[in-house]
Amino acid sequence: MLSAKQIKIVLGVVLASLALGASAMADGVFTVAMQPTVENDPGLISSDAEIAVANAAYDYLIDIGPDHVLVPRLATAWTVSEDGLSYKFTLASGVHFHDGSPLVPGDIVWTFNRLRDPENGFPTASLFENIASVEATGANEVTFTLTQTNPFFLYDLSDNHALVLKRGTENFDAFNGTGPFVVTEYVPGDRIVMVANDDYFLEGAPLLDGLEFIFFTDSEAAVAALRGGQVDMAWRMPITLYVGLQGDPGIITVDVPTNGFDLVRLRSDMEPGSNPLVIQALKHATDRATILNLVQLGAGTVGHDTPVGPLYANYYDSSIRALAYDPARAIELLEQAGYGDGLSLDLYTPDTGARPQLAVVLKEQWAQVGVDINVIVEPESVYYGDNHWMDATLGITGWGSRPYPQFYLNLMLVCDAAWNESRFCNAEFDRLAALAGTTLDEDTRVTAYSQIQQILVDSGPVIIPYFWPQVAAYRDAFDGIALKGFAGRTDFRTIYEK
What we know:
The protein is an alpha+beta fold.
C-alpha cells in the first residue's frame, strides 16, 4: 500500500512523462484496429475493445500501471485507517465532464453505489458487497467504509468497470466522461472517432490530437490493415500473426508476460459436468505442453488449471501440478462415469486470439479418448453478448490479466460469483477464498492460496492450459506506448507521434 509520499512521487513520474512527450510537440491521430464493441455502459463492459473505449472516454479513481503498481488518476492521494476499514480519497481539482459540468464527490458516490447495488445486476455487486458506505466527506474528498478488511481493496477500486460517471447518467452512447478523449462519432459495428479533450485535468495530456478505434471481426484483416497503413496498431491477435509481423519494416512488435489465460470450462450444474469423473477425464486427456507449442508457438507458460499463475510470485505454488496427461486413465474414468461408448459435446469459442486453434487441438486430443467435440466459433460480440458465454455447456473464455489473484476467485469461482461460468461450488474453496481476501496476515494468505490451487487441480471443472503473453504491433511513427497485460487498460494518454 503506497504512502502519501510515494503517491506524490508516482504522480510526479506520470506528469513528467507526459511533459516529456509534450515538449516534443507530438500530435497526430492514432488509429487502433480491434473487435467491435457491443456494450457502452461501463458497468457492463467485458471485452478488451469495450474497456479500451471506456478507458479513453472516462477516468478511474485510481489506476494500475504497466508494472501493476497503483497510480493516481482522479484521486491524487489516499489514506487508510489503522483498522483497515476506512479509505479516504482526495480528488484532483479542475476536473470536468465532457459536457462541461464539474466533477464533484457526489459523482464518485453515485458511481460506486450504482456498481454495488445488487438490484442493478452488475458483476461488480459481489466485488463491492464489502462496502458499508461511500460518502462525500469534504468539498474534494470521498470516504469508503468497509464491513471487513480487504487487503486488495485499492485494486478492486481500479476494476475495469469502476469508471467514474456523472451522477444520474442514463445515455451511455454519449460517452460523457472526464477522460482524455471526447467521442465525436460513434458508428456501431464500424468505428468510434475521438478527439483530444482540451479541458483534461492533467496538463499536457493527452499527447495525441485524436484517437480512432476501427472495428475488425477478423484478425488477419486487422493485420493487413496495419501493414497497409490503414491503422496504426493491431493487438490481441493470434501468436502466429504476431510472429509473422516481426521484422516487417516500419512496424514495432511488443509483448509482455501476463496472467491472462484461456479457460476451458464445463458447466458442473448439468450433465455431463455434474459427474466429477468427466472433468477429471477431460483433464487427463489434455496435453498442455503440446497445446502451448501448437497454439501459442511456445509463447507463454504452461497452466495447471488454476488462475493463480507464475506472475503472482508470492502466491503461486510451483509444487502443484495439473493432473498428468494420461489418455488411458481418461478412458477408464469415462467408462466409470457411464460414457464408455463415447461422449459428444458442442464447444463454443469466440473468434479472437488463439481460441479457435485451441478448440481444434482439444477436439483432436479428446477424440483419442472417445469424446467427440463439435467446435462452434462465434464472433466475440456474439459469444459474450446476452450472457451466451455463461449459458454454454462447454466453452472457452479468455480471461484478461489482473494485478492480483483474488479477482478471479471472487468473480469467477466462488459459489455466488457473478461470472461463475462453470457453476463451480465448493464450500471449502469459498471458505479459503474468503480468508485469503480478508486476512491482513501475508503468511495466512499464502497458505490459503496454496490450498485453493490444490482444490482446483483436483476437482475444479476448469482447464487452464496456458498463460499467454499480451501482444501488439504498431507503426514506428508513434511512441510512448506501454502495453498493459490487460490490453484494454493500455494508457493512450502517453502515446505521441514522432
